[in-house]
Each structure stands twice: as structure tokens, then as C-alpha cells.
Design goal:
The chain is α/β, with parallel strands linked by helices. The chain is built from eight helices and seven strands, in the order H-H-E-H-E-E-H-E-H-H-E-E-H-E-H. It has a seven-stranded mixed β-sheet with strand order 3-2-4-5-1-6-7, with helices on both faces. The radius of gyration is 16 Å and the shape is globular.
Length: 218
């Protein structure tokens, strides 16, 4: 689904037709299928909140995380939406059955990505909405107004969807959780199953609820 020919109003209409009213109830978290991330978040991606996952290196595991998330949510019969800012998703690397519950929106700018994510978050039919902005230059990301992120945070608050933002650098302001994938995967690991690669990921918690409270208190 490309965002260029399909305007936001048309996207809303398409979602309403494809997924009639079937609101999900907010839950404690959505498992990603990556033990290091689920443990860091206390069980999975928190509903109604933004979680930022920084892939500091091109081969640090961002694709592995998304693949495991698709497999995990497919097994749980949960829908996922991906807003792909730079056409970076490689569906051929994912088992076909794990794609059946995915809505893939391709956008061209950060503004369009945030606008599409706002619609999907408010839709109420998705367990997880993923924004992948890693293909946008860091300079362009840094220059973007923070207001767009705050609007998305407000849209997500109290809702049923967990929002995962995949970024190339620490970017999202005042995000409740920020996790960083530091180490690059070795070339020798390229052919290993996704679950094996996921087990080798090294995740660092840069920001969490405790850190946010301390910053606000200061």
C-alpha cells in the first residue's frame, strides 16, 4: 500500500472497509518474540505508549526484530501495521504466513509517516503500529519539528496499540522507553534462523520509566 496515491482520507476509508469495528482492549504488553527486548520492557511492547528501538548499525538486528515480531503476533492472532518511510522492509526475508496479518504502508517523508501512523493508531484494530524511519537521513530526522512526535504520543495514550519506532539514532523526544541495538551481526550469522539471531541480540536500555521520572524531577 503506497501512501503517495492513497491520501489519508482514503486510508481511513480503506481501513474501515477492511476492518469493521472490532476494537481491541488495552493490554499489558505485546510480546516481540525477542527475549532481550521483552525482558527489558517487562513483558513486551506497552500498549498506548511509544517505544523507540535504535539500530545504531546497519546490521544490528532491526530486520530480525521486526521478523520475530511478525511471527509472534501472527501466532497470537494480532494485527500489525508498518509505516515504512523509505521502502526498507524486505518481505522476502519473512515467512509468507507471517505476512498475512500485516498492513504495509509505504510513505516518502517523515511527515507522511507520522500522519499515517496517527490514523493507524486511532483505528483500534492493531496490536502494534511500527514506524520505520531508518532510511531517512539523520540530518532530515533531526530537523523535523518535535511536535509531530508529541501528537503521535497523545494519539497513542490510552489506546490499544503499542507503537514501535525504529530509528537510526536517538530521536523521539520524551519517549517512555528507548532501547538500543549496539552490536552488529556477523556475516557468518546471516544464514541462521531468525529465532537464533534474535537470541544473540544485545539490547541496551537508554531510557525507561525510572529514568524519565528522574529527568522530570530534575
Amino acid at each position: 500500500m503506497s501512501l503517495a496515491p492513497i491520501k489519508l482520507a482514503a486510508l481511513r476509508s480503506l481501513l474501515s472497509a477492511r476492518f469493521p469495528e472490532k476494537a481491541r482492549k488495552p493490554g499489558s504488553g505485546v510480546g516481540t518474540g525477542v527475549a532481550a527486548i521483552d525482558e527489558a520492557l517487562g513483558g513486551g511492547l506497552p500498549a498506548g505508549r511509544l517505544t523507540e528501538l535504535v539500530s545504531a548499525a546497519p546490521s544490528s538486528g532491526g530486520q530480525t526484530v521486526f521478523t520475530r515480531l511478525l511471527i509472534s503476533t501472527r501466532a497470537a492472532r494480532q494485527r500489525v501495521a508498518l509505516v515504512d518511510a523509505a521502502d526498507g522492509f524486505a518481505p522476502e526475508a519473512v515467512p509468507v504466513d507471517a505476512l498475512r496479518h500485516l498492513v504495509w504502508v509505504r510513505s516518502r517523508t517523515l511527515a507522511a509517516t507520522l500522519a499515517a501512523a496517527d490514523v493507524l493508531v486511532r483505528d483500534g484494530n492493531y496490536a502494534v503500529v511500527v514506524l520505520d524511519v531508518r532510511g531517512i537521513s539523520e540530518r532530515a530526522l533531526r530537523r523535523a519539528p518535535a511536535a509531530g512526535w508529541y501528537r503521535l504520543q497523545r494519539a497513542a495514550e490510552g489506546g490499544a496499540a503499542a507503537v514501535l519506532v525504529q530509528t537510526p539514532c536517538e530521536l523521539v523526544p520524551a519517549v517512555p522507553w528507548r532501547l538500543v541495538l549496539r552490536a552488529s551481526q556477523a556475516l557468518a550469522d546471516a544464514g541462521l534462523p531468525a529465532e537464533v539471531l534474535a537470541g544473540r541480540l544485545e539490547v541496551e536500555i537508554v531510557r525507561g520509566h525510572a529514568g524519565a521520572t528522574e529527568e522530570e524531577a530534575g
